[in-house]
Amino acid sequence: MTARKVTGLASLLAVALLLGFIENILPPVMPLLPYARLGLGNVAILLCLMWYGLPAAGIILALKCVILGLFSGAPVMILYSLGGGVLSLLVMFALLKLNKNGLPALSAVGGVMHNVGQVLVAMLVTMTPSFAVVLVYLSLFGATAGALTGVIAFFIHRILCNKVKE
Amino acid sequence: MSRNKDRQTEYTLFRVWDVVVIVLVLALLAAALYMILAPTQGRSAEIYVDGTLVATVRLDHQERIDLLGLTVVVEEGSIHVEDADCPDKICERMGKISKAGETIICLPNRVVIKILGKGEVEAIT
What span, in angstroms and rounded, lies between the C-alpha atoms of A57 and B7? Predict the structure, then answer.
């Protein structure tokens, strides 16, 4: 691992954390779904996956979830965000490998998978299958937020990709 | 953008495959939701004797319950009275019940079996 890669990963983690903090402070985007958030921090995770591969992105994701969870004052949330994040990351990795999709759609699927993962964890923790109902609304929101994330990642990549790779 | 040596991945904003993938995910999601939510309809039953709740049984397994003069059988999401010691056997003839709100009533033994509604949340005690 080169110094260049370390600093790149560290910057991405810093961006992800900062965006996460700001989102925690801001009021919910949709009053009806207080737990639905844009997840702009996932731009950093997606870029990390594109630039540095799956293992690096996994580490950054885990750090982001744990640190944000500890600082948000509700460590239980780590479980939920990790569940969603890991599923989302794996699916996005598979889609990137297939190399047949545009970034917004890929990221939208990732967003939906994030919600699926979270709700799965919630269902397991509370043992209530009816939790799945939330998924209907949540995944529509997740797809939109994911698509937005993908568009942002696309433009950041266009600006930065030549600087990231030597 | 692709001046790098082994960069096969050219990132784009939209490709035809996006439609396929999104439709696929939505279809999978709908199917999964249906499978998860369908069996929750009447997934447990309450048994009352003399108006007091004596048992709550989940209907997702096989079980035989001997209750007063009744033999109550749980199977495949339904519940029925297999054998009753009373002369009229009305509860036996009521057959299997499985949908929310359905009841079996045995007057001689003062037993009521009721399937819980889908909207009702099970009490956590």
Answer: 18
Written as six digits, the tokens of A68 are 């944000």
> Could you say which of A96, A109, A162 has the minimum Cβ distance to residue B21?
A109
Mutation target vs A (from B8, B18, B19; most A CBs, 10 A cutoff): B18
Nearest CA in chain B to A104: B13
User: Which DSSP symbol is given to A130?
Assistant: G
B17 contacts chain A (CB < 8 A): yes
**Cβ-based contacts of A102 with chain B (< 8 Å):** 11-15, 18
**Boundaries of every domain in chain B:** 42-115
Q: Is B9 in Cβ contact with A154 (below 8 Å)? A: no
Task: List chain A domain ranges.
Answer: 3-164
- Residue range A3-164, CATH number: 1.10.1760.20
Scanning B38-108, the segments in alpha helix (DSSP H) are 90-93
- Model pLDDT, residue B5: 43
Q: Which residue has the tokens 């249906």?
A: B34
Tokens representing A49 are: 């996956």
Fold of the domain built from segment(s) B42-115: mini-chromosome maintenance (MCM) complex, domain 2 (2.60.320)
Q: How many CA atoms lie within 13 A of B119 on its CB side?
A: 1
C-beta separation of A86 from A45 below 8 A: no
Taking an 8 Å cut-off on Cβ atoms, the answer to whether B29 and A112 are in contact is yes
Which of B1, B10, B13 best tests the A interface by mutation, with the highest count of A CBs <10 A? B13
**pLDDT tens-digit map of A14-57:** 999 999 888 888 877 766 666 678 888 899 999 999 999 999 99
B21-68 per-position pLDDT tens digit: 989 998 988 888 787 776 655 578 888 888 888 888 888 778 888 887
